[in-house]
Amino acid sequence: MISIDKINLSFGGFELFKEISFLVNPKDRIGLIGKNGAGKSTLLKIITGIENPTAGVVAVPKETSVGYLPQQMVVSDTRTLKNEVTQAFEELLAIEKKIAHLNQEIAESEDYHSDDYLKKLDLITEYNERYQLLGGDNYEAELEQTLMGLGFERTDFDRMTSEFSGGWRMRVELAKLLLKKPDVFLLDEPTNHLDIESIQWLEDFLKTYSGAVILVSHDKAFLDAVCNRTIEISLGKITDQKMNYSRFMDWKAEQREINLAAYTNQQKMIEDTERFIERFRYKSSKAVQVQSRVKQLEKLDRIEIEEEDNSALKINFPPAPRSGRVVVEAKHISKYYDSLHVLDDINLTIENGEKIAFVGRNGEGKTTLARIIMSELEHGGTMKLGHNVKIGYFAQNQAQLLNGELTVFETIDEIAVGDIRTKIRDILAAFLFRGEDIEKKVKVLSGGEKSRLAMIRLMLEPVNFLILDEPTNHLDMRSKEILKNALANFSGTVLVVSHDRDFLDGLVNCIYEFRNKKAKQHLGGIFDFLYRKKMESMKELESKKKNTKAAKVVTSDKQNDELSFDEKKEINRTISRMEKSVAQTEEKIAELEAEIEEMDKLLANPGDIDDHSVFEQYEQLKSNLEQSMLDWENAHEELENWKAKKTW
Q1: Mean pLDDT score of the chain, rounded to an integer?
Q2: Which domain range does residue 164 map to?
């Protein structure tokens, strides 16, 4: 469908692309990956024709339509949300006008047998057929479905687009692009401004889309769910494999070992050859052999190995100062912004060592509650921090608080202490500050670079309660993994506001879902939460269909066919956790039964008992045993329910 043939791109002697070639086929789902600066966004711009290659050809057939969503774009502010998104149906709207105009002319005509009159009737028939073919009777329903899938409410439809924040206006452009239904989607970080529910909706849309997709994203879960092919840009060349991101990375690790061995052997051969040339360069008897070796080196296709990314680099937060058991206790929290009611009667308790996530649609109050915990906002109800709680806060605007006159290195060096000072350059490199970058002044950095720098500062400060608001927005996958590992090893308490499922997976064990001014607690991991939400949605759908003839119960086999790898992994993890809980309860029951048996022997001769508190202790043991038996019964029943879901 689209042919990229031997593309070269040079900037002042630096080659970004070296004869890149690949084909985009119908229904391809391509994940375009690579380090920051590898040229992913540039390649999308070349395919769209926004930029031109130094050499090579991009061939896009005339009948092939391409839809491009850049990371940043200028949006219109002159229409309501619905009117703006309706512009996606440009051809339909034009046909509607033509039909209306022709109907008016026909109604005013009096000569029903003229050629002109009959020609207009034929045109109306032709336009109506085209209108039906383009889905004209259904486009408004499709528009509403798309807007609501991306997180908009019906009450938003008549609002001016100028009233929405930048992130929401990007959703407007995404909605228009999806509704245009081009043959090929080129999407550059489309999930940056979406919440979890909208990301899942977009996943489902793209997975079933009839056209092709080329996708740039740092969201591993999104790439795995959508893509069936991965193209990595590295050292100006591409590696193209028909597999999703996770499988590609496993394959790449195996290939790296093979290439590294070949590279080592080649380097030894080059070294031996150069030593021979140097040794016999001036001996006439060896002139032929020397020239042969020189030509051999000139013709050699040298193996290049991408610089090791030092992925094993371990960065840990400083040891957390000791705090009380209860870190946050919130009761009946409410919050209004003028007449806008954001939070209503929220109760929340966070204990020492817990790792919690706030999730939900944008605008539901997640950041607001985080700022209330920080004592930054006035509110109704009571908010109490525990003993000796020291908060480290990363906000989405954290970068604005940095000193613009310091260099990148100085910004970290001023707070680094002890052995960490010897690792500053390694830490900066892990967050993509390398070479001359570390000597740049903070004031010349981009917003994303400042955010990464602010994150590094936070990782070096001794606190015991971390509140992180969208910490992964400007991090690549490796930086996210480093941060995630550091948070997992952190001995203090963590609260994360995030839409990044892969980042939250295995990190948090409690989810607070924000919806309709409330915050509902869900115990377990992120994919456990999403699986339950999916089952709830399916139950709601079935209840709506139960009175229709076509309604059929979704079997557990089909449900599991639709489960993603991460959802299956979460079910396995939950089963393991439940099995451990059941085993621990059984141990406790055994201990209580043993204690009661000893007490029974003692109470066989009550006349020998002087201390009447023994009887109270006996009753308490029996009460504890009864409660433990009840706990075991509930845990065992829940374990069996989870095992029933595992049919793969």
Answers
A1: 83
A2: 77-181
